[in-house]
From TrEMBL:
Native organism: Bifidobacterium subtile
Membrane topology: Multi-pass membrane protein
Pfam family, one: Form_Nir_trans
Organism lineage: Bacteria, Bacillati, Actinomycetota, Actinomycetes, Bifidobacteriales
One GO molecular-function entry: formate transmembrane transporter activity
Primary location: membrane
Protein name listed in UniProt: Transporter, probably Formate efflux permease
GO cellular component assignments: plasma membrane
UniProt subcellular location: Membrane
Transmembrane segments: 77-98, 104-127, 156-177, 210-229, 241-271, 277-304
InterPro entries: Aquaporin-like, For/NO2_transpt
C-alpha cells in the first residue's frame, strides 16, 4: 500500500481500486482563518504545547543528523533576518534622535524601532528558520523527555549558533560595502556596542547586570513561542501580535539577546569600532543568560509542570489503582472504569477528586 498526502487530497493506492477522498484542506500557515481550538486536557492543559515542541525537536534532531547543510541554511536565514531588522531598529532610533527640536521624538523612535524589530521573530517563525534563543527552549524540553542527552543537545545549539553568526556576518559584510549605516546610524550602533561590552568592565555587578538582562530577554522570547505552540491560538494575526510584543518588550527595556548582539558586534567590528575580546566575553555571558531564561525558566519549567507521569500526590492517592486520573478523558470515563483498575482508594476517594478534576468547570 502507498500513501500520498498533500494539502488538498488524501490518496490511498492499493492492489485493488484506487480510492480518493477529499479531505478538506487544513488551515494553511499564514491564512489568518480563525478556527476553534481543540479542547484542552483539564489536568495538564500544557501537554499539547509539550507534544508540539517535541515534534519540532524531532525535526531539528533529524536535520542536525542527516541534513546539516539545510539546517545551517535555515540558521543562516535567521541571522540574516535579525541583522536586517536590528539595523532598521538603529536607523529609526537615529533618525528620530536627530530631531532635538521635536518633543518626545527620541521616545517615538525607540518605540517604532522596537515594534519593527519584533517582525524579525515573525519572519523567522513563518519561514521555519532556526534561531538559537528559541531553540534553547526546544532542546531543553527534548532533553527532559529523554529524546536526547543534554550533551548532544549542545550540537543542535552549536550548529544553530554557527548558522546565525554566518547570517549576521553576511549582513555585516554587505553593510560594510554600502552607505546604509553611515553617519548617525553607525554612531548609534557604536554607542550601543560600547554599552554592551562596558558591562564587563564594571566588575561583578556589571556582569550580573548583563546576565539578568539576558535572562529576561529570552524569557520574553520564549513565553511568546509557548503561546504560539500551545494549541490555543489558531489565528495567525494573534500569533504575530504576541511575537512582536514580546520582542518589543525586550528591545524597549534594553534587554540582551545573544544573536542580535553578535550581529551588532560584527557590523561595528568591520568598522573597527569594538574590542573583539570584550565582544566575545559579552556574548558568552549573554548566551548563558539566554539559556537560563529560555531553556530553564520556560523549557525545563514547563516540561516538568506538564509531565503527566509525575502527578500531584493527592491525585495518585485519590486514584489508588493502576491508572492515573490523567489517563481518563472525563468523569464519565472514570465512572465506567473496571473497579479493579481503580483500586480500593480509587473507589473510596476517586469519585470526589475525579469529579472536580475531570468534570468541566464553569
Amino acid at each position: 500500500m502507498r500513501l500520498d498526502k498533500n494539502i488538498e487530497t488524501l490518496t490511498i493506492q492499493t492492489d485493488g481500486p484506487v480510492t480518493v477522498a477529499q479531505s478538506g484542506a487544513p488551515e494553511a500557515q499564514g491564512s489568518g482563518v480563525d478556527q476553534p481550538a481543540p479542547p484542552m486536557h483539564p489536568l495538564f492543559p500544557g501537554r499539547r504545547f509539550i507534544s508540539t515542541v517535541l515534534d519540532v525537536f524531532d525535526s531539528k534532531q533529524e536535520m542536525t543528523g542527516h541534513l546539516i547543510g539545510k539546517y545551517l541554511q535555515r540558521a543562516t536565514m535567521a541571522g540574516f533576518f535579525v541583522g536586517i531588522f536590528f539595523t532598521t531598529y538603529f536607523a529609526l532610533v537615529a533618525r528620530f534622535a536627530a530631531m532635538p527640536d521635536v518633543p518626545g521624538a527620541a521616545l517615538v523612535g525607540k518605540v517604532l524601532g522596537s515594534l519593527t524589530f519584533g517582525w524579525a521573530l515573525v519572519l523567522i517563525y513563518y519561514t521555519n528558520s532556526e534561531l538559537l534563543t528559541s531553540n534553547m527552549m526546544v532542546v531543553s524540553i527534548g532533553a527532559y523527555h529523554k529524546r536526547i542527552t543534554w550533551l548532544r543537545s549542545l550540537k543542535i545549539l552549536g550548529l544553530c549558533l554557527v548558522g546565525n553568526l554566518l547570517g549576521g556576518l553576511v549582513i555585516a559584510v554587505l553593510l560594510r560595502f554600502s552607505s546604509v549605516v553611515d553617519g548617525d546610524i553607525l554612531a548609534q550602533m557604536v554607542s550601543a556596542a560600547a554599552m554592551k561590552t562596558g558591562y564587563l568592565t564594571q566588575g561583578f555587578a556589571g556582569v550580573m547586570d548583563l546576565f539578568v538582562r539576558a535572562i529576561l530577554c529570552n524569557f520574553c522570547i520564549n513565553i511568546a513561542m509557548l503561546m504560539v505552540y500551545n494549541g490555543k491560538l489558531t489565528n495567525d494575526f494573534t500569533k504575530c501580535v504576541i511575537m512582536v510584543v514580546a520582542v518589543f518588550v525586550f528591545a524597549f527595556l534594553g534587554l540582551e539577546h545573544s544573536i542580535a548582539n553578535s550581529v551588532l558586534f560584527l557590523i561595528v567590528g568591520l568598522h573597527g569600532a569594538v574590542d573583539p575580546l570584550l565582544a566575545v566575553g559579552s556574548i558568552a555571558v549573554t548566551i548563558l543568560g539566554n539559556f537560563v531564561g529560555g531553556g530553564l525558566l520556560i523549557g525545563l519549567n514547563f516540561a516538568v509542570m506538564n509531565d503527566e507521569e509525575r502527578h500531584h500526590p493527592l491525585v495518585r492517592l485519590a486514584h489508588g489503582g493502576s491508572k492515573n486520573l490523567g489517563d481518563y478523558e472525563d468523569f464519565e470515563d472514570f465512572e465506567n472504569e473496571d473497579p479493579a483498575e481503580k483500586g480500593y482508594c480509587g473507589r473510596i476517594f476517586g469519585p470526589i477528586s475525579a469529579h472536580f478534576i475531570l468534570s468541566p468547570q464553569d
